[in-house]
Design brief:
Helix content: 25-40%
Number of helices: 10
Radius of gyration: 22 Å
Structural class: alpha/beta
Length: 364
C-alpha cells in the first residue's frame, strides 16, 4: 500500500477531488456507498470526473469515463473505493475501466463487500497498474456510513443533540425551544439530508410532535422518519410525523396494541428498558438504511450508548446557562468514571453564536 505522504502531488490532488465529489452523493445512494472518480489523461490533464449520484444509477467510474471519452485511453483513474467486480443493477466498474483503456487505477479504500470485491485483482490481471491506499483515511471518513454497515451489519449512527453550556437540553419546567440558534437548526437539516433515517423516541414525540423531514434544502431524498414508541402511546393519528412529507416507521413492542396501519409499524422485542436497540438497527438495515441520525432525548440516546451503537456525536452547545433541567444523556449504563465512553474530538466549529463539536468514540 502506497503511503499518502510518498504520493506525487498530482495523485494527491486528483484523489482529494474524488473524495470531495463522493460527498455529493451523501443521502441519495443507499444502500450503495458514496464514491467519487477523477480521470487524468496520459499527459496528466483532468478529462473526466463523476460520483455515484443515486442507487441503481451509473457508478462514479461510469460517469467519469463518459465525460472523458476517448481521452481516457492510457490515462489514470482515481477512485475513492476499489472499483466493483460484480454485476448488480449496473455492470462491473473494473471491466468498464479496462474496456476504456485506462492504464493505471489509484484507489483509496478496499471494498469490504464480499459480493463486489476483487476489482483490483481483475484490473491487474488485465495489465492495469493498480495503487491502493491513497488518502485512505479521508475516503474512509467520507464513506463511514456504508463501510460501517458492511463491516458491522447495522446502520452507522450519528447522535446529534443541542444543549446549554452546562449540559441541559431543557429548562426545569420542560421548555426547550429554542436552546440552539437558527443557524444550528439549519445545520441539523443538512445532517438529516445526509442520513437515510432520523430517529426519535416517545418522549420527543409527545413533547414536540416533531415533523423530522428535511426543510430548506432542495432536491434531497427525504430520510425515513423513525419513532421508537415502545408502548404505542406517543404517535397518534394526526401526528405531524405521519404526513406525506417523508416515509415513517413507528417501532413498537411485540405485545403492544396500535391503531396505526401495518405499513407504518415494525414490532420489536423488548430489552428490559425499552425496545432492543440491536433489533431496531437490524430492522432498519433490512430496509436499506445505512446511516441514521439519532435525534431523540436523553433516555433514547442512553440506550444507544449502552448498546455500543453510537459511531459519531455532534453536539451544538449554546452560550446559555440554566442550572437545572434534564441532562443530555441518561441511562447509558455508566456508573463510574473508569467506564466512561471517551471521545476523540475531530472538529470544533462556530455555528452562529453556538459551538458545534464533533467527536467519535475511542475504542473501548
Amino acid at each position: 500500500m502506497a503511503p499518502a505522504a510518498d504520493a506525487p502531488t498530482a495523485d494527491m490532488a486528483a484523489m482529494r477531488r474524488a473524495v470531495a465529489l463522493a460527498a455529493r452523493g451523501l443521502g441519495s445512494t443507499s444502500p450503495n456507498p458514496v464514491v467519487g472518480c477523477v480521470i487524468l489523461d496520459a499527459s496528466g490533464h483532468q478529462v473526466g470526473e463523476g460520483w455515484h449520484e443515486r442507487a441503481g444509477g451509473p457508478h462514479a467510474e461510469v460517469h467519469a469515463l463518459r465525460q472523458a471519452g476517448v481521452l481516457a485511453r492510457g490515462g489514470t483513474a482515481y477512485v475513492t473505493l476499489e472499483p466493483c467486480n460484480h454485476t448488480g443493477r449496473t455492470g462491473p466498474c473494473a471491466q468498464a475501466l479496462i474496456e476504456a483503456g485506462i492504464a493505471r487505477v489509484v484507489y483509496a479504500v478496499g471494498d469490504p463487500d464480499p459480493q463486489a470485491t476483487g476489482g483490483a485483482a481483475t484490473l491487474r490481471a488485465a495489465g492495469v497498474e493498480v495503487v491502493a491506499g491513497l488518502l485512505e483515511a479521508e475516503a474512509e471518513a467520507g464513506n463511514a456510513a456504508w463501510l460501517t454497515s458492511v463491516r458491522r451489519g447495522r446502520p452507522y449512527v450519528l447522535w446529534k443533540y443541542a444543549a446549554t453550556l452546562d449540559g441541559r437540553i431543557a429548562a426545569q419546567d420542560g421548555t426547550s425551544r429554542w436552546i440552539s440558534s437558527p443557524e444550528s437548526r439549519a445545520d441539523v437539516h443538512r445532517l438529516r439530508a445526509e442520513a437515510d433515517a432520523v430517529i426519535v423516541g416517545s418522549g420527543t414525540a409527545r413533547a414536540d410532535d416533531p415533523h423530522l423531514a428535511v426543510r430548506g434544502l432542495e432536491g434531497v431524498v427525504q430520510p425515513l422518519r423513525v419513532v421508537v414508541d415502545t408502548e404505542a402511546t406517543a404517535v397518534k393519528p394526526g401526528a405531524r410525523v405521519l404526513d406525506d412529507a417523508a416515509p415513517t416507521l413507528v417501532a413498537i413492542a411485540e405485545d403492544a396494541t396500535t391503531g396505526l396501519p401495518d405499513s407504518r409499524v415494525v414490532r420489536l422485542p423488548r430489552d428490559g428498558r425499552g425496545l432492543s436497540v440491536p433489533a431496531l438497527l437490524a430492522a432498519l438495515h433490512e430496509r436499506g438504511v445505512r446511516s441514521a441520525l439519532l435525534e431523540g432525548g436523553p433516555a433514547l440516546a442512553g440506550s444507544f450508548v449502552a448498546a455500543g451503537a453510537v459511531d459519531k456525536v455532534v453536539g451544538y452547545l449554546a452560550p446559555v446557562l440554566l442550572g437545572a433541567g434534564p441532562a443530555t444523556l441518561a441511562g447509558a449504563g455508566i456508573t463510574t468514571l473508569a467506564d466512561a465512553l471517551r471521545l476523540d474530538v475531530t472538529e470544533t466549529v462556530r455555528i452562529g453564536p453556538d459551538l458545534r463539536i464533533t467527536a467519535t468514540p475511542k475504542e473501548r
